[in-house]
Write a structure and sequence with these properties.
This protein has 460 residues and is an all-alpha fold. It has one domain. It has helices at residues 6-24, 27-41, 49-65, 67-76, 79-94, 101-104, 111-119, 132-140, 143-153, 157-184, 207-223, 231-250, 254-259, 261-280, 289-311, 313-320, 329-343, 353-357, 377-407, 414-429, 439-453.
Length: 460
């Protein structure tokens, strides 16, 4: 009987350790780690400095480990996309460049500050931003989505599918964690900000952003490849879909619940396309009866599950919110419009809305709480970034429309088509809220940009 010595085993152990180290050093695993940290700590707004700092330091570390990916992105990505990304990241930095008093004092909205400074010794050199700390924070907030965008851009279709699967699993975990708050009052990382019993937040500080996150991941789930998926795999996906659907309802966000129509329509489109492709290929007689039976059972199960969810007491509380008013948000937007006009066309600086809104708030609209958001992201962008911000927004819209048109072509690229739905939902919700004012949704949007910009993938 022979035995293997430790010396004989050591080369194999060393080789395994070397392979493990190589895998851990891959950019894809760095990307997954960054997204995991972001999904846990990045759901708060600008007020969650420590949590956001964890995300941003992680992004800096991942970026430092993958410097070559940034070079490749700059060289190989479409020129329009590259310059759009650079301009968007640089906007807060431009607003931090100091200007001489003769120029700064003539900028719109600076009259009161100029008069106050003259009484205290005269104005000095100041930037466009009226609160450089908040604007610097806005710039730092672009590091994580920029890193995610760059690393995602180098992924092949197989790794992109794995990334989408990871996001689906993570979203289901966030929903289950948030459901603890609905059931027992636990499962809310930001309950110190605003305690709302029975409302699902998960790892988000804002339930509106949580709702559109679940809707977005539901779209990506529907877009996942279905070829070769086992019966158990189909069942798992149906359970995940029900979790995300339920999570959206339990956020009690009216805009999020309305956005559920998008993944439902997308599911019908995907199912019809799958069936139609088989028929047009002349294989109608060979259609797998088990696949059809599974599809029918799945649709019925989804319908019954949705009916049970919507008939529950928690869901009825959510649906009853459609009968309520807008909570004074129309008055808030009126005052925000005044602020936008006051600082047009240069803006007040990214992140400064809360500071400048107070000086333009009508006395009969004053509440006990300070207003931190315009509840309309386009209007808030006009206040903070002025004409440059609106111009950048229009160029982004132009880019998205062109990318969406290409994604609707043939052969079909379902992840890219899901990205169209995600962008549409975010754009619509931005009319009444601020879904992109957290790190999670910014990183998810970066992924949708990559899905729309990469070469067409074969349908699966």
């Amino acid at each position: 009987m022979t035995t293997t010595s430790a010396h004989d085993r050591s080369p194999g152990v060393a080789a395994q350790g070397h392979r493990l180290a190589e895998k851990l050093s891959e950019p894809f695993h760095h990307l997954i780690a960054l997204l995991l940290i972001t999904l846990v700590f990045g759901g708060g707004g600008a007020g969650e400095g420590l949590n956001n700092l964890v995300v941003q330091l992680s992004a800096l570390l991942v970026a430092a480990l993958n410097r070559d990916a940034f070079i490749r992105f700059y060289r190989k990505a479409p020129r329009t996309l590259v310059w759009l990304v650079i301009a968007s990241v640089a906007l807060p930095l431009v607003q931090l460049v100091p200007m001489p008093p003769a120029i700064w004092s003539r900028l719109p909205g600076r009259e009161i500050l100029t008069e106050a400074m003259e009484l205290s010794g005269g104005a000095g050199w100041y930037p466009i931003s009226l609160n450089w700390g908040r604007t610097l924070t806005a710039f730092v907030g672009t590091l994580a989505p920029l890193t995610v965008l760059v690393l995602c851009h180098g992924l092949d279709s197989r790794r992109m599918d794995r990334l989408i699967a990871f996001l689906v699993i993570a979203a289901c975990a966030i929903m289950l964690f948030g459901s603890l708050h609905v059931i027992s009052g636990l499962g809310d990382l930001y309950s110190d900000q605003m305690s709302m019993n029975g409302v699902l937040f998960g790892t988000f500080a804002d339930r509106i952003a949580a709702s559109i996150f679940f809707v977005s991941i539901l779209l990506l789930l529907i877009a996942m490849p279905w070829h070769g998926v086992s019966a158990m795999g189909i069942l798992v996906r149906l359970c995940a879909a029900l979790l995300l659907f339920t999570g959206t309802i339990l956020t009690q966000s009216r805009s999020g619940m309305a956005a559920l129509l998008v993944p439902l329509a997308f599911l019908a489109w995907r199912a019809l396309a799958l069936l139609g492709s088989r028929v047009t290929a002349g294989k109608a007689a060979q259609i797998n009866k088990g696949l059809l039976a599974g599809a029918v059972v799945g649709i019925v199960a989804l319908a019954l599950g949705a009916a049970l969810i919507l008939s529950s007491g928690r869901a009825q509380v959510s649906l009853d919110r459609f009968d309520n008013g807008d909570g004074g948000r129309s008055d808030l937007r009126d005052d925000a419009t005044v602020a936008a006009i006051t600082f047009w066309p240069v803006g007040s600086g990214m992140g400064t809305f809360e500071d400048v809104y107070q000086t333009n708030e009508a006395l009969d609209h004053v509440k006990t709480r300070l207003v931190g958001r315009a509840h309309m992201d386009y209007l808030e962008l006009a206040v903070e970034a002025g004409a440059i911000g609106i111009f950048l927004l229009l160029v982004w819209i132009y880019w998205f429309v062109g990318a969406a048109w290409r994604a609707l072509g043939s052969p079909p690229d379902w992840p890219a088509r899901a990205a169209i739905g995600i962008v549409a939902c975010i754009a619509a919700q931005s009319l009444v809220a601020y879904p992109l004012r957290n790190q999670i949704m910014l990183c998810l949007t970066a992924i949708t940009v990559v899905l729309l910009s990469r070469p067409k993938a074969k349908d699966a």
